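Example 4.3 (complexes with small molecules)
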Amino acid sequence: MTRIMHEMSIAQSIVDIAIQTMEANGGHVIHAVQLQLGLMSGVEPDSLLFCFDIVTKGTLAQGAKLEIETIPIKGRCLDCDQEFGVEDYKFVCPKCGSHFIQTISGRELKVATIDMD
Ligand SMILES: [Zn+2]
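Answer. The structure with zinc ion bound is encoded below.
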Protein backbone atom coordinates (compact mmCIF):
# COMPACT_ATOMS: atom_id res chain seq x y z
CA MET A 1 0.00 0.00 0.00
CA THR A 2 2.80 2.44 0.79
CA ARG A 3 4.21 1.76 -2.66
CA ILE A 4 0.98 2.74 -4.34
CA MET A 5 0.86 5.89 -2.19
CA HIS A 6 4.30 6.75 -3.50
CA GLU A 7 3.24 6.36 -7.14
CA MET A 8 0.00 8.18 -6.40
CA SER A 9 1.81 11.31 -5.24
CA ILE A 10 4.13 11.15 -8.26
CA ALA A 11 1.16 10.77 -10.61
CA GLN A 12 -0.46 13.76 -8.90
CA SER A 13 2.57 15.96 -9.45
CA ILE A 14 2.80 14.89 -13.12
CA VAL A 15 -0.84 15.88 -13.60
CA ASP A 16 -0.23 19.20 -11.79
CA ILE A 17 2.70 19.98 -14.10
CA ALA A 18 0.69 19.01 -17.19
CA ILE A 19 -2.32 21.16 -16.26
CA GLN A 20 -0.16 24.15 -15.26
CA THR A 21 1.75 23.89 -18.54
CA MET A 22 -1.47 23.63 -20.53
CA GLU A 23 -2.97 26.68 -18.81
CA ALA A 24 0.23 28.67 -19.25
CA ASN A 25 0.03 27.93 -22.98
CA GLY A 26 -3.67 28.68 -23.31
CA GLY A 27 -4.55 25.07 -24.07
CA HIS A 28 -7.78 23.32 -23.19
CA VAL A 29 -7.17 19.60 -23.61
CA ILE A 30 -4.26 17.29 -22.81
CA HIS A 31 -3.88 14.31 -25.15
CA ALA A 32 -0.76 12.74 -23.76
CA VAL A 33 2.12 13.28 -21.38
CA GLN A 34 5.51 11.85 -22.19
CA LEU A 35 7.52 10.95 -19.13
CA GLN A 36 11.16 9.99 -18.90
CA LEU A 37 11.58 7.37 -16.23
CA GLY A 38 14.99 6.06 -15.24
CA LEU A 39 15.38 2.40 -14.33
CA MET A 40 16.83 3.53 -10.99
CA SER A 41 14.04 5.99 -10.23
CA GLY A 42 12.38 3.44 -7.97
CA VAL A 43 9.05 3.98 -9.69
CA GLU A 44 7.03 1.05 -10.97
CA PRO A 45 5.67 2.02 -14.44
CA ASP A 46 2.54 -0.16 -14.17
CA SER A 47 1.61 1.32 -10.79
CA LEU A 48 2.24 4.80 -12.11
CA LEU A 49 -0.05 4.23 -15.12
CA PHE A 50 -2.72 2.89 -12.80
CA CYS A 51 -2.44 5.91 -10.48
CA PHE A 52 -2.33 8.35 -13.39
CA ASP A 53 -5.74 7.16 -14.58
CA ILE A 54 -7.16 7.66 -11.11
CA VAL A 55 -5.76 11.13 -10.43
CA THR A 56 -6.71 12.51 -13.87
CA LYS A 57 -10.39 11.63 -13.38
CA GLY A 58 -12.49 14.77 -13.18
CA THR A 59 -9.54 17.03 -14.04
CA LEU A 60 -8.61 18.84 -17.26
CA ALA A 61 -6.21 15.97 -17.92
CA GLN A 62 -8.95 13.33 -17.93
CA GLY A 63 -8.48 10.91 -20.83
CA ALA A 64 -4.84 11.89 -21.32
CA LYS A 65 -2.42 9.08 -21.97
CA LEU A 66 0.74 8.69 -19.97
CA GLU A 67 3.58 7.54 -22.22
CA ILE A 68 6.57 6.30 -20.31
CA GLU A 69 10.02 6.30 -21.87
CA THR A 70 12.33 4.09 -19.86
CA ILE A 71 15.85 5.49 -19.47
CA PRO A 72 18.60 2.89 -19.05
CA ILE A 73 21.27 3.18 -16.39
CA LYS A 74 24.56 4.65 -17.56
CA GLY A 75 27.71 5.19 -15.61
CA ARG A 76 30.97 7.04 -16.08
CA CYS A 77 34.23 5.74 -14.70
CA LEU A 78 35.90 8.32 -12.45
CA ASP A 79 39.31 6.74 -13.11
CA CYS A 80 39.37 6.50 -16.92
CA ASP A 81 36.30 8.51 -18.05
CA GLN A 82 34.80 5.53 -19.86
CA GLU A 83 31.00 5.76 -20.24
CA PHE A 84 29.03 2.53 -20.30
CA GLY A 85 25.62 0.99 -19.86
CA VAL A 86 25.11 -0.56 -16.43
CA GLU A 87 23.49 -3.99 -16.44
CA ASP A 88 22.22 -5.88 -13.41
CA TYR A 89 23.35 -2.98 -11.21
CA LYS A 90 27.03 -3.89 -11.76
CA PHE A 91 28.80 -0.60 -11.23
CA VAL A 92 32.20 -1.73 -12.45
CA CYS A 93 34.11 -0.10 -15.30
CA PRO A 94 34.35 -2.55 -18.26
CA LYS A 95 37.60 -0.91 -19.39
CA CYS A 96 39.74 -0.62 -16.25
CA GLY A 97 37.75 -2.51 -13.58
CA SER A 98 37.35 0.52 -11.32
CA HIS A 99 34.50 0.67 -8.81
CA PHE A 100 34.50 4.48 -8.76
CA ILE A 101 31.48 4.96 -10.97
CA GLN A 102 29.33 8.04 -11.28
CA THR A 103 25.73 7.42 -12.33
CA ILE A 104 25.01 9.71 -15.29
CA SER A 105 21.55 8.47 -16.22
CA GLY A 106 18.87 6.18 -14.87
CA ARG A 107 17.44 8.36 -12.08
CA GLU A 108 15.23 10.46 -14.37
CA LEU A 109 11.69 11.22 -13.40
CA LYS A 110 10.58 14.12 -15.52
CA VAL A 111 7.90 15.26 -17.89
CA ALA A 112 9.52 15.50 -21.32
CA THR A 113 6.67 16.73 -23.51
CA ILE A 114 2.98 17.41 -23.19
CA ASP A 115 0.76 16.82 -26.21
CA MET A 116 -2.13 19.29 -26.00
CA ASP A 117 -4.46 21.62 -27.88
ZN1 LIG B 1 37.57 2.86 -15.94
